[in-house]
Write a structure and sequence with these properties.
Elements (H helix, E strand, L loop, with lengths): L1 H10 L12 H8 L3 H10 L6 E2 L7 E2 L10 H10 L5 H24 L2 H20 L2 H19 L2 H7 L3 H11 L3 H20 L2 H23 L1 H6 L1
Antiparallel strand pairs: 1-2
């Protein structure tokens, strides 16, 4: 809990980039915990590379360019702090193309009836969430749909390759699902993917996934690009 609160204070600018954190005593008083708890909280954030912990010196807040790209909490903050706020989302799309196109081809060949039923159920949940304007439900069903494709593909090595991106995808999906057109486009593209996987057609499935990822990238540019938003 202390680590999360500390990270929130970095993200909201209370503890500025490049500056030192307050002393352990000051942080302990702020959070109402012991210095040992503060020390462990700081240590737990070291893998995110948000903090530069040096023995015998003040702990510094690193530049956002050094923050881990695999932590979903940090992705949007790191993106917005860069000269090109869509650079990391674009790189994420490249990674998705490299893996998810192969996944959907395998899913079309290997899927069983229970996989099809799961995909149908999740697509319906996307539709229902969108109709209610429930961003969280829509995002969760979307993420689960892609996870179901991985299950159908049945390749533990591809699972392992993609697993580190899970929290990053969740952060991005929560951001994009807040835009109604994003949800609507995703529902249509997922319907095409479902149809191809149901048909057991890997060529059609590949085309449907490529179209989905292309649509997603176009929607990034249209709805999340600060330059485009400012021009409207």
């Amino acid at each position: 809990m202390v680590a999360e609160q500390l990270l929130d204070l970095v993200l909201d600018g209370t503890f500025p980039i490049g500056g030192p954190l307050p002393s352990e005593s000051e942080l302990a008083a702020r959070f109402g915990v012991s210095r040992l708890t503060v020390r462990e909280a700081i240590r737990s954030l070291v893998p995110t590379r948000v903090l530069d912990v040096q023995q015998g010196r003040s702990t510094l807040v690193n530049p956002t360019s050094m923050w881990s790209p695999l932590d979903g909490r940090l992705l949007l903050a790191r993106s917005r702090a860069g000269s090109d706020p869509l650079l990391l989302p674009r790189r994420l799309m490249e990674a998705r193309r490299a893996v998810e196109v192969a996944i959907v081809e395998l899913a079309a060949v290997r899927r069983q009836e229970h996989h099809i039923e799961r995909l149908r159920t999740l697509h319906q949940k996307m539709l229902d969430g969108h109709a209610r304007g429930d961003v969280t439900a829509s995002a969760e069903a979307d993420l689960a749909f892609h996870a179901a494709l991985f299950d159908a593909a049945d390749n533990v090595f591809l699972d392992a390759l993609f697993e580190p991106l899970t929290s990053v995808l969740r952060a991005m999906r929560e951001e994009t699902s807040a835009v109604p057109d994003f949800r609507s486009h995703a529902i249509d593209r997922h319907a095409a993917i479902l149809q191809a996987v149901e048909a057991g057609d890997p060529v059609q499935a590949r085309a449907a996934m490529e179209a989905h990822l292309q649509q997603t990238e176009e929607d990034f540019e249209r709805y999340l690009n600060p330059a485009e938003l400012g021009a409207r």
